[in-house]
Specification:
heterotrimer; A mainly beta (92); B mainly alpha (111); C alpha+beta (420); A: Ubiquitin-like (UB roll); five-stranded mixed sheet; two-stranded antiparallel sheet; C: Naphthalene 1,2-dioxygenase Alpha Subunit, Chain A, domain 1; Rieske Iron-sulfur Protein; seven-stranded antiparallel sheet; 23% helix
Chain lengths: 92, 111, 420
């Protein structure tokens, strides 16, 4: 089974295949989804989403607190899936 | 054979579903402008008599957790709201005296 | 013979003697020179409504607002403690537009903890403070503490976010709104969170469009289709139940036209089906004891209060328990951006959702008639075939508005001359 990221944005849900080591943001963009971003360096928090299933690893984290991370918040411009099933929700 | 779009008891409206079950007002508005008067009258004549029954049906479904077929029925009724102005009020696609004006809806609840 | 009592002077207009009853000029709506004067005299001095608290739904959200007339873009933020602030949307380094998405020519909104300038990577917190300068030691004696964003005055009234671009506003927001407008804060705006929004680029001066929304004298002739053909009366008239002016602001209360009480044969089939129309959903929400500050004159059969808050905000509250706001943003001497927001207590059933949808559809249908017609009004005024125009008593708000605009421009010119 293809490793997949399930992305919910603007009230719609899409299953996007994981590929190479693309971040959640890049996977979403490649699938044609319009998701928020600004600095793409892990410094602003615009690309924030919450992980509801699975796990990810962020290259950098310049703005999220430990409490944010414990609550499942991720910077999608930095986050790469580490499980074959990941589910994230934007816009909460 | 294509899948049913609407709840089974509204199968009589299926011929209009692909055209008029549109989730946003901008899509429904563009469809209104792209439709002929005959097409809009046909849709209105089929949908209006069934609309009260559709509303009663939808009132039995939780608005915040609607199944897809019920959502599409609600979207069809939103299209009816737009088409009703063409059929009941203006007898043309756009309001009288619209001229060159254009107003876009940019935000609405979903569904 | 009036349906509603007029003031002792015999007319609403005469009740405010400073207005006069003579013909008025609309040169202010066609003159390029006057538009340039207005931009500074009004849009860089008055309190301007740029949004609502609903536009900043959580701590750590923002939106940008383009104010072409004031030659700026604003960044409005809610920080992690909930405080709302506004800034010029400009990086302190070399003046780049700090926050935009898609294209710098459009407004954007979103969430974030910091803003990062895409040009050289400088960063700012939600409070506007500069948090990071890239290669800081390359600079000569800079202090990040002094490199924050340029703040503009920002305050909130009844959930409406206002800004003032003056270095020192002449009045606080509450003083500016004054004793006629501020009681409207008793209306439960905060309960009405289901939103329908519209935007238009209109080919008319911002004031020409506002004028169509501050008199209902035009309703029987222009919006004749609001009644079915069998019930249209070419002799139909409009009379406001109560007009009131206070400082730069004005309002009208209407009475009658309670569509939800009309006999079925007077209504269109879809008004009956959807239980809604131009006065909104027929089934009003139960607002309990929440509603205060409406119908200040206590008119019977009250329909709406239409508040015109200078310069460019209109709030209409409806007896049926919902409201709308209109804003009119000049983009040139004869174009403007029109924003309309309809707000309802959220629907809980499909029937309620459809009633709100039909109300929103109805507003757009009739607003298109206004917009189409007013293109022609702008063209007619620019011909300068006439240079003065008669206004009747039902057009008192039009008269007051143009006088107020003239007063603000004149006062600003006088202040500039005195400062030289």
């Amino acid at each position: 089974m293809t490793p997949t990221v399930t992305i919910t944005a603007d009230g719609e849900t899409f299953d996007v295949p994981q590929r190479d080591s693309l971040t959640i943001l890049l996977l979403a963009r490649r699938a044609g989804l319009c998701v928020p971003s600004m600095c793409e360096l892990g410094n602003c928090g615009s690309c924030i989403a919450r992980v509801d299933e699975g796990s990810v690893e962020m290259h950098r984290n310049g703005v999220l607190t430990p409490e944010d991370v414990d609550a499942g918040w991720i910077l999608t411009c930095q986050a790469v899936p580490t499980t074959s099933t990941v589910s994230v929700v934007y816009g909460l | 054979m294509s899948a049913r779009l609407l709840p089974a008891e509204f199968a009589d409206l299926e011929p209009y579903a692909r055209t008029w079950c549109l989730p946003t007002e901008p899509e429904r508005w563009e469809r209104r402008l792209a439709s002929t008067m005959d097409e809009m009258h046909g849709f209105y004549d089929a949908c209006f008599p069934r609309a009260e029954a559709a509303i009663v049906y939808l009132d039995g479904v939780e608005l915040a957790a609607m199944p897809d077929d019920a959502t599409r029925l609600l979207e069809m009724l939103c299209s009816l709201a737009l088409v009703s102005y063409v059929v009941e009020v203006w007898q043309q696609s756009l309001p009288i005296d619209t001229g060159s004006a254009r107003i876009d809806r940019i935000s609405e609840p979903r569904p | 013979m009036s349906t509603f009592p007029r003031p002792p002077e015999g007319s609403w207009t005469a009740h405010y003697p400073q207005l006069g009853t003579g013909r008025v000029s609309f040169e202010d709506s066609v003159s390029p020179e006057f538009y340039e004067l207005e931009r500074d005299a009004i849009f860089r001095r008055a309190w301007l409504n740029v949004g609502r608290v609903n536009d900043l739904p959580r701590n750590g959200t923002y939106f940008t607002k383009e104010l072409a007339a004031a030659r700026t873009s604003l960044l409005v933020t809610r920080d992690m403690d909930g405080e709302i602030r506004a800034f010029h949307n400009v990086c302190r380094h070399r003046g780049n537009k700090l926050v935009w998405s898609g294209t710098p020519r459009q407004e954007s909104c979103g969430a974030g903890r910091q803003f990062v300038c895409k040009y050289h990577g400088w960063r700012y917190g939600l409070d506007g403070g500069c948090t990071y300068v890239h290669q800081e030691d390359e600079f000569f004696g800079i202090d990040k503490a002094l490199l924050g964003l340029a703040a503009v005055h920002c305050d909130v009234w009844a959930g409406f976010i206002f800004v003032n671009l003056a270095p020192t506003p002449a009045q606080t927001l509450r003083e500016y709104l004054g004793p006629m407008v501020t009681p409207l804060e008793g209306f439960p705006f905060h309960l009405m969170t289901e939103r329908y929004s519209f935007c238009a680029e209109n080919a008319s001066n911002w004031k020409v469009f506002i004028d169509a929304f501050q008199e209902y004298y035009h309703v029987p002739p222009l919006h004749t289709h609001q009644l079915g053909p069998a019930f249209r009366n070419p002799e139909a008239t409009f009379e406001g139940a109560h007009y009131q002016l206070d400082g730069p602001h004005r309002m009208v209360s209407t009475s009658g036209t309670r569509k939800h009480t009309f006999p079925a044969e007077h209504l269109y089939p879809s008004e009956l089906l959807m239980r809604s129309g131009n006065t909104g959903p027929w089934d009003a929400p139960d607002l309990g004891q929440h509603v205060a500050g409406v119908n200040p004159a206590g008119v019977a059969q009250w329909g709406i209060d239409n508040y015109q808050i200078f310069p460019n905000l209109e709030i209409i509250v409806y007896e049926r328990g919902w409201y709308l706001s209109y804003r009119f943003w000049p983009t040139s001497r004869n174009t403007h951006v029109f924003e309309a927001d309809l707000w309802f207590v959220p629907a809980t059933t499909a029937r309620e959702r459809l009633a709100r949808e039909y109300a929103a559809v109805t507003v757009k249908e009739y607003a298109l008639q206004d917009a189409g017609t007013l293109d022609g009004t702008q063209m007619g005024l620019e011909a300068r075939a006439f240079t003065d125009f008669p206004l009747n008593d039902q057009e008192i708000l039009v008269r007051h508005f143009h006088k107020t605009v003239a007063d603000w421009v004149r006062e600003h010119q006088q202040a500039l001359a005195a400062a030289r």
